[in-house]
Amino acid sequence: MSATLQSRRNFLKTSTLTAGGLVLGFNLFSSSAKAAGITKATITGNVGFNSYLSIGTDGVITLFSPNPELGQNIMTSFPMVVAEELDADWTRVKVIQAPLDSTKFDRQSTGGSGAVPHSWKLLRNAGATARYMLIAAAAKRWNVPESQCTAENSFVINKTSGAKLGYGELAELAATIAVPSEVKWKDRKDFKIIGTAVKNVENDKIHTGKPLFGLDFYREGMVQAMIQRPKAFGMKIKSVDSAAAKAMPGIIDVVTFNNNVAVVGKSTWEIMQARKMLKIEYEIEKGLESSSDHDKLFLTLLDSTDAKVQRKDGDADAAFKNAAKVIRSEYQCPFLPHSPMEPMNFFADVRTDGVELIGPTQTPGAARTAVSKLLNIPEEKISVQITRLGGGFGRRLKFDYVTEAAELSSIIKKPVKVTWSKEDDMTGGSYRPAVRYRFEAALDNKGNLIAYKLRGVGINSGNPTRQDNFPSGAVDHLLIDSVEYESPITTGAWRAPITNFLAFAEQSFLDEVAVAAKKDPITFRLELLEKAKSSPVGEIKYDIDRMIGVIKLATEKARWGQNKNLAQGFSVYFSHRSYVAQVCELAMEKGKPVIKKIIAACDCGEVINLTGARQQVVGGIVDGFGHAMFGKLTFNKGETEQKNYNNYRLIRMKEIPEIEPHFVDNGIDPTGLGEPALPPTGGAVANAIFKATGKRIRQQPFTDHELFKSTPSKVKTRLQNSPG
Amino acid sequence: MPKIQLKVNGKQLEADVAADTPLLWVLRDHLGLVGTKYGCGIAQCGACTVHVNGVATRSCIFPVSGVKAAEVTTIEGLSEVGDHPVQKAWDQVDVAQCGYCQAGQIMTAAALLKQKPKPTEAEIANAMHGNICRCGTYHRIKEAVLLASTQK
Predict the structure, then answer these.
(1) Last residue of a domain, one of A143, A176, A207
(2) B146 touches chain A (CB under 8 A)
């Protein structure tokens, strides 16, 4: 696919519009600023071309990766796009995590599967522009027209003479060339890097234990701290007796601020021990809630007369009165902690001349703004260095652990690294909200879906529905509303927010409706999609053809309905701009359902890194499957009943099914893949379980269901490690 | 507090720590070997796995006083230049996502292969079951262990 860029005038306008984000440094690299490239060099001896790349005279190309890396492989896929358009020799490329710099980059955050879709064109421009300048430099050197030159593998080649000049030799001259106002992108058929499997650029460091993560950051003179936060949501500190803790070896100070008691010391183990000696009295500030309260609350909220309408098409109530058949079901999910492997931590050094923040964050910009406000220090005096993140899953979109580190540093006037224990993480809040849904469907006497209702009720969930997702647009009469309950228990975005559970509930319910309509579940969905296409109801905010595309690919790859020895379950979901259909295959063994395989068909647009894309799909499915099977965080009087992996169960190796990812090859611009594979999994699995057993699972975790209650021997072994 | 002597990655080292300090924190806070990770602190996730006399050991609950004359090997010392067959297989299969748990996974796998050079898939799953990967890289871990078992 080629693209002609907009005119230079428009381009500059766009540059200015992108939130101060320098698209390419075009405005700085105007033809009058001849040496701008050289002065912008980020590394000594290198020639800077734009925010994303600089070239060393030795030919080594440094690519800057601006977005936080948490396992979505952005440090590999972003540079791949730049290198592709640059025609760079990938074996001589060095990738560096860029610090927060809102003059060079925009949207320097990780979340919403949005980095690649957002930056796709910026990255291509970055590479293509520099390539153009290198070619122009070579043409100048050879005194030949630019059209006589081409680029390949970090060389410019004279097509007539066959002469070659390396990018390193050309870099300085190239940087004096006027930045082109328009560059032509490669046609996708000419891609040499995009679409191939390129290994994680940090593999060697990961495999040899190099200090990459926030928790690995140490600096001479820094102190360490752990913070005791209230054990239950709704409690606040009444009094603190820190004498015993202060007397422990290695302890420098104990500081109380807000609802925190920070134990500051020389080493992690010493502060862990001293923290146990704190005597803190708490008092109740707000209600101390238990999961049993929430279960009752949900039932009340489902019948509330005060719901917020999210979408209304036609007259659902009237249509239900005329229905030949009505199906009604409720689905519920528990709270879940994000539980990334690396616990929360951050380094902060608040000095009179400025603030240094170093650590794992998905939102460095927002964290800086929050610290600026909290300490009343201008943002330009605050630097944020982004370390590799040991997982995020949405937890590190929040920056509570950044601001508390900064606040503590400002109080003790020392550089400090604050570390959370696993227990701190699991009990410390920001969970996937607990939600309950009531679905209702009305069928006419031919089994057509004529009306559909969904009510979502949630605890600090915001809007727990996605009112414009399928089947909205395919049903004449539809009502989607929600009721919110405010709780002291804190919640936040958890990988594929809301859809991580809604998709399971909705896709299971649609399966129920298909069964009631006596239709094959895939045919049933395709009929609805055809209707949405031919006579759409209200606004349609998903791409019908892309959804049909993944349904057909999954059906074909799974040979839907052809193997009578296996029970198959289907689901398809649109989230974060991408489409994923899944077929789960299951066999009954000794009377128990055993999940054998999950086949996934994904449309995320252009696949940039095949190995990374497969990882995101397989990992997303393992994540979705594991949490659907085992994930459960419950509360007793405001306190979580699970505090660590001994009773909070995560999926382990012996529990994974085979997973087979497939991608639609349609060449549209990338639409994101960090999350979309997760939501459909629970539904595909539950629908396969129904197919095999006739039992419909409507609550997570599935292992709470009677089907899984008496555990076969295989599971017993497993439980030794994680009694869940 | 007497200094504690221990042999890590072939080097005789000492640390000024209390005897009950878990090996994990001695490595990380005192010896600058941060490749060994803190995950759960209760021997449930395996991120802190090191070798003590070649045996995969959870360093987060192993008191440093228990090391005595034993040889401790961490991810930094598994090979000179990161070319242990398990490390190479991890790269070839491109296992890591976030990468945080992988040092522990690699150490568990290396200990398994030392004890059992040609494990079956089931034996691999049994040995690796104690190591959690929150990103869900289990399929590739299994593949990489199998690959490493075919290499010298």
Answers:
(1) A207
(2) no
